[in-house]
Target: Putative Dol-P-Glc:Glc(2)Man(9)GlcNAc(2)-PP-Dol alpha-1,2-glucosyltransferase
Amino acid sequence: MKSAGIFLLVGLLTLWMVLPSWSGTILPVQQIPRVTVKPGTCPLIASTCRMLNPPDKCKEDLDCVGPMKCCMSVCGKECLQPNQVTAKPGTCPLIASTCRMINPPDKCKEDNDCAGPMKCCMSFCGKECLQPNQGKSGTCPVVPFRCKMRNPPNRCESDSQCAGAKKCCDTGCGLGCILTQKEKPGTCPVVTIRCLMINPPNRCDYDHQCPGPKKCCETSCGRDCVLLQRGTGLSVTGSPLS
Model:
């Protein structure tokens, strides 16, 4: 009996010594992190109240019901309807220079902060709502000459700066607003005879400069407005252009 009691005591002591090592191997249950930021961006606040350290009505997005976010309002934080980030069509105009202010204040954060078709673009001094560039239809003509001026000034930077149907195109001496060439139906005839004048003057350059169905074609002595017969390379007189 005495030996059995000794074995029992040794067994209990051994179990007591092993238990701490077992408990040390048990891994704690990891908690799944909460998603604290809801989609969307807070609306832009143009002004703030004069109260120092105004009380907040929320601390994080999860304090707000539904899709609302905890945003800075006029006077402290509160639950507001967020802006859904959607980019408006068009591209921001090119900015040639910037102000010297370090970190200038932005008047907008995204396109949704701007009225109508205007976009939130980088301006001369920080972001602000600007009219985007919208490319107009038509193709700029090929310029056959260049002026002698180095780095000629541009009179436009995008189509949106040109009135009506004009496009901002290369003029041979910087960019300028011009009417693009829109060809009228028909094919100009092949000219087989040339006048003796060197570099004869042109009476037109593009079809849109000709009235009605006439086209601006190469004639025997410079370009001129010509009325063609449909499907032929002849003038309305029935004879080849000369």
Notes: The first strand starts at residue 69 and ends at 73. Residues 2-24 form the longest helix (23 residues).
